[in-house]
C-alpha cells in the first residue's frame, strides 16, 4: 500500500513536540536497542534493574506524602464526628458544607500555575515545601476557637495542596513508558487509599487523648496529623527525585549515567518526548482547545465526586446505622482497604492488555451499584456492602483515568498542563460532592446519591465515545492518512 504521509492536522499538532522530535519521527531505535535488541537477556536485565530503582525512589515517598495529604484533606469529617461539630458551631446551617467547599476553590485555581513552577524549581524542594506548608496549616486548625478560622485554614490548605497531586502524576508519568504508568499510578494512589482507611483508625486513637493537656480529642487529630505531615515533608526533601532530564544535575544521582540513558532511550522509543520544552501561552492555548483534554478532565471530575462523597460523608452514613463513635471509625477502614487489591488488579489487567476504556466502564458500574445499595438496600449489611463497592469503583477508576490521558498525549509541556487541568476538575468534583450531599437529607442523601450516580453514567458514555473516536483515528493512521500526536508510530490507547 502506498505510504501517504499527510501533514499533521492542526487539531493533532502539539507545539510542545517541536523540540527533540526528529529522532522519534524517523522511527530510529536507540543505539542501545540497535546493539542489544529488546529480546537480549542482558539488556532486559539492565532495564529491569533501572526500572526497579526508579520504582523504589519515585513511588513510596510520593505515595506517603500524598497519603498524608488525603488524611489532612478529609480529617474534617473525623473531627466533626468527634465533637468539633458542637464546639465550633458546625452543626448550624451549612457551615460544614462551606468549610468543605472553600478548599476546592483555591485547589482549583492554583493547579496549572503550580505545575509551571514545578519545572522551574528542583522537584524535591518544591513538593516538600508544599507538604511542609499545608502541615503547618493543619496543625494550626487544632487551635481554632470558632468555625471561621477553620474556613480560612481550608482555603490555605487548598492553595498548598493544589500543586502536589498533579505534580506527582506529572513526575511519575515522566519516568515510565505508556504501559508501565497505570500500575505505578495505582500503587501511588494505593498509599493514599490505605492511609485514608487507617486514617479513620488513627483519628479514633487520637480522640482517646481527650483532655490530655486540657485539649479536646478532636483538636489532637489536627495537631498530631499536622506534625506527621511536617516530618514527612523533611523526608520528601531528602528522597524526592528530579525529572529524568535533571538527574545528572541533581545532588546525588540515584541512577548511573548509563541507566538514565537506558530509560531515556526507551521513553523516546515509546513516545519521543523526553526533551523538556518550556511552557508558553501558545502551548497552554493548544491544550485548552484540545477537546479530548476536557473529556478526560470531566472523567476525573466524575471520579472525584464519588471519592470525596465517600471521604466526607461515609462516617456520617455509618453512624446513622446506629453505631457508636468508636464503631463508626473502625467500620470506616475496611471499605478503603478492600478497594486497594481491586485497583491494583485493574491496573495490571489494563497494562497487560494495553487497554483503558473497558476497565473504566467496569469500574463505573461497580461504583454505581454501590451507590444505589447505600441508598436503597434494606438492612445495615447490604448498605454497608454498598460502601465497599462504591469505594472499590471510584478509587480504582482514578488511576485508570489518569493513565488513559497520560497514554494519549505527548510533549513535556502538554503533560504538565493536561495533568494539572485534569486534577483541577477533581476539585470541581469535590465542590459538586460538597453541595449535593445536603445536611437536610442526612442520612440518606438521596439527591447526593443520584447526583453521584449521574457522574458514573457519564463515565460509561464518555468511555464508549472516546473509544470510537480513537479507533477511527488509529485506523486512519494505519492507512497512512494521518499522523497522530506528531509521531508516525504513535497510536491511541483505547
TrEMBL record:
It comes from the Eukaryota. Residues 58-475 form the Major facilitator superfamily (MFS) profile domain. Signal peptide: none annotated. Pfam families: MFS_1. InterPro entries: MFS (IPR011701), MFS_dom (IPR020846), MFS_trans_sf (IPR036259). The keyword Zinc does not apply. The chain crosses the membrane at residues 96-114, 126-144, 150-173, 185-207, 219-243, 293-317, 329-350, 357-378, 384-404, 416-437, 449-470. This is MFS general substrate transporter. It comes from Eremomyces bilateralis CBS 781.70.
Amino acid at each position: 500500500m502506498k505510504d501517504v504521509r499527510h501533514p499533521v492536522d492542526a487539531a493533532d499538532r502539539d507545539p510542545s513536540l517541536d523540540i527533540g522530535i526528529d529522532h522519534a519521527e524517523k522511527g530510529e531505535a536507540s543505539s542501545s536497542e540497535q546493539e542489544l535488541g529488546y529480546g537480549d537477556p542482558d539488556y532486559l536485565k539492565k532495564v529491569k534493574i533501572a526500572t526497579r530503582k526508579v520504582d523504589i525512589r519515585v513511588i513510596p515517598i510520593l505515595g506517603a506524602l500524598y497519603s498524608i495529604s488525603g488524611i489532612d484533606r478529609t480529617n474534617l469529617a473525623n473531627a466533626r464526628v468527634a465533637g468539633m461539630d458542637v464546639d465550633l458551631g458546625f452543626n448550624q446551617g451549612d457551615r460544614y458544607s462551606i468549610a468543605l467547599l472553600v478548599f476546592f476553590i483555591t485547589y482549583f485555581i492554583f493547579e496549572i500555575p503550580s505545575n509551571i513552577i514545578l519545572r522551574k524549581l528542583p522537584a524535591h524542594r518544591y513538593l516538600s515545601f508544599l507538604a511542609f506548608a499545608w502541615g503547618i496549616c493543619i496543625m494550626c486548625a487544632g487551635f481554632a476557637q470558632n468555625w471561621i478560622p477553620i474556613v480560612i485554614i481550608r482555603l490555605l490548605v487548598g492553595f498548598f495542596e493544589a500543586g502536589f497531586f498533579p505534580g506527582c502524576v506529572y513526575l511519575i508519568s515522566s519516568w515510565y513508558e505508556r504501559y508501565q504508568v497505570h500500575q505505578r499510578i495505582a500503587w501511588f494512589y494505593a498509599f493514599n487509599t490505605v492511609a485514608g482507611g487507617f486514617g479513620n483508625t488513627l483519628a479514633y486513637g487520637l480522640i482517646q487523648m481527650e483532655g490530655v493537656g486540657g485539649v479536646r480529642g478532636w483538636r489532637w487529630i489536627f495537631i498530631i496529623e499536622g506534625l506527621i505531615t511536617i516530618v514527612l515533608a523533611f523526608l520528601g526533601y531528602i528522597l524526592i527525585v528530579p525529572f529524568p532530564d535533571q538527574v545528572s544535575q541533581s545532588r546525588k544521582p540515584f541512577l548511573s549515567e548509563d541507566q538514565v540513558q537506558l530509560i531515556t532511550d526507551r521513553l523516546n522509543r515509546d513516545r519521543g518526548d523526553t526533551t523538556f520544552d518550556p511552557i508558553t501561552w501558545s502551548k497552554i492555548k493548544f491544550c485548552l482547545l484540545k477537546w479530548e483534554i476536557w473529556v478526560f478532565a470531566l472523567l476525573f471530575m466524575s471520579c472525584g465526586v464519588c471519592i470525596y462523597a465517600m471521604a466526607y460523608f461515609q462516617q456520617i452514613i455509618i453512624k446513622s446505622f446506629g453505631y457508636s463513635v468508636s464503631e463508626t471509625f473502625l467500620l470506616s477502614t475496611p471499605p478503603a482497604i478492600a478497594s486497594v487489591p481491586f485497583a491494583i488488579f485493574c491496573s495490571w489487567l489494563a497494562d497487560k492488555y494495553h487497554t483503558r476504556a473497558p476497565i473504566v466502564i467496569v469500574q463505573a458500574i461497580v461504583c454505581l451499584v454501590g451507590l444505589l445499595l447505600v441508598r436503597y438496600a434494606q438492612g445495615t449489611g447490604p448498605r454497608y456492602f454498598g460502601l465497599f463497592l462504591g469505594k472499590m469503583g471510584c478509587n480504582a477508576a482514578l488511576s485508570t483515568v489518569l493513565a488513559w490521558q497520560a497514554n494519549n498525549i505527548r510533549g513535556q509541556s502538554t503533560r504538565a498542563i493536561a495533568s494539572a487541568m485534569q486534577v483541577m476538575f477533581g476539585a470541581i468534583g469535590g465542590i459538586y460532592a460538597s453541595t449535593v450531599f445536603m445536611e437536610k437529607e442526612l442520612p440518606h442523601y438521596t439527591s447526593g446519591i443520584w447526583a453521584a450516580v449521574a457522574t458514573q453514567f457519564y463515565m460509561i458514555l464518555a468511555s464508549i465515545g472516546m473509544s470510537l473516536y480513537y479507533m477511527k483515528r488509529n485506523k486512519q493512521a494505519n492507512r497512512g492518512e494521518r499522523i497522530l500526536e506528531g509521531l508516525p508510530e504513535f497510536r491511541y490507547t483505547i
